[in-house]
Fold:
Amino acid sequence: MPKKKKLQPPQRQQQQPGREHKMKPRPKAEDEKQRGSGKLRDKVAIVTGGDSGIGRAVAIAFAKEGADIAVVYLEERKDADETKRLVEEQDRKCLLIEGDVGQEKFCQEAVARTIREFGKINILVNNAAEQHPQESIEKITEAQLERTFRTNIFSFFFMVKAAIKHLKKGSVIINTGSVTAYKGSAHLLDYSSTKGAITSFSRSLSQALADKAIRVNAVAPGPIWTPLIPSTFSAKEVETFGSDVALGRPGQPEEIAPSYVFLASDDSSYMTGQVLHPNGGTIVNG
Structure:
């Protein structure tokens, strides 16, 4: 087997969620060459896990297209403040909402605050996630299993339930899945299971909401350089992260954001129940 290429400095953050401002190198959240064309003009989007990583990149890309953003995050205030600054650089509003999306009451409060601030919701991006690698299934505790499912899939149900009465014809729901839903992961059994659930949830919800003309799709990224990586993998694993895909490197959040813009806009008006796969060349079925 060929030796994996070293792609970034070894590093390990000792806390979850990870902190983007501590990463080396920092993820690329914005394609500065990209200019918006008003595809989401005057829309309002909620992005969970929007303080960093893919969520930050999506928030910036949506703002460039004319949307105001409600960023929901757990506790990473410094990263969230930076996302707010980057959104406001695009002359759009950004509301920060701190709390745990694994709790239904908080999700209801997050939606209510968004409505009070902006008066509407057009786009819901369920993106928050956590992972806890384990060597074997025996090491996955009941507490870890429940926590992972609460954050990664319960929250999707909670956010949709809270938002649905505010979503009108033409509204969009986008769920963040993962390549692990298709190829599996020996050390991320609970995480990859939640991502498989997200695929089924997205397909089923798309059918349930089709008569309301609300589209539901998902994005299943491959290895992306986000705070989740140094906060969950060993320094050695971080050093070679992403080297095993066809393109030979991890993706940057800015490379994933266009998939969300496409699904949020009328460019994808005939798509629902589908999954996009920006994964660096991993071949998947479904």
